[in-house]
Write a structure and sequence with these properties.
Radius of gyration: 20 Å
Largest sheet: 5 strands, mixed
CATH topology: Immunoglobulin-like
Order of helices and strands: HEEEEEEHHEE
Shape: elongated
Distance between the termini: 50 Å
CATH architecture: Sandwich
């Protein structure tokens, strides 16, 4: 009975770990990495989704606005059977294109305006944060297994 409840809630089930560099060059346009999948009990994975998300923050204190943008997503339909205390490694290659604000587009087209744009972004407290997420759908579990890792894209 307890085992069935643990399986439904995903307790002692599948664990995910993203193995990739902490810093990625924007010019590369992709993230190569591995997904380490472990399990403390026998489980079957049905689907894995890997996503790159940008958290775009601007403004100060009460006027602060935060938006999140999905930059890339990779869906992997799978049928991986994990045995008790086993581990699987899944390689992935996630391509992405960064979204550029109007200020970023101007700075990219005109190198002379980069300093002025950088100053304006500092005054408006504009900052982007990036994270890579992995979500696994496990057969018989009501909850998805998730993990995330913060990235620096320069």
């Amino acid at each position: 009975m307890i085992r069935k409840i643990k399986d439904i809630l995903g307790i002692e089930g599948v664990r995910l770990e993203i193995l990739c560099p902490d810093e990625i060059k924007e010019s590369e346009g992709h993230i190569r990495g591995q997904l380490k999948i472990t399990s403390k009990s026998s489980q079957r994975l049905q689907k894995i989704t890997i996503r790159l998300v940008e958290k775009y923050r601007r403004g100060r204190e009460e006027q602060m606005l935060i938006d999140e943008y999905l930059l890339s997503s990779l869906d992997i339909e799978t049928d991986i059977q994990l045995e008790k205390d086993s581990q699987e490694i899944l390689d992935f290659n996630l391509t992405f294109n960064l979204l550029l604000s109007e200020m970023d587009q101007i700075a990219k087209k005109n190198p002379l305006s980069r300093g002025l744009i950088k100053l304006a972004k500092t005054l408006k407290n504009v900052k982007s944060y990036y994270r890579i997420e992995a979500i696994a759908v496990v057969e018989g579990s009501e909850l998805e297994t998730q993990t995330q890792k913060d990235l620096i894209i320069s």
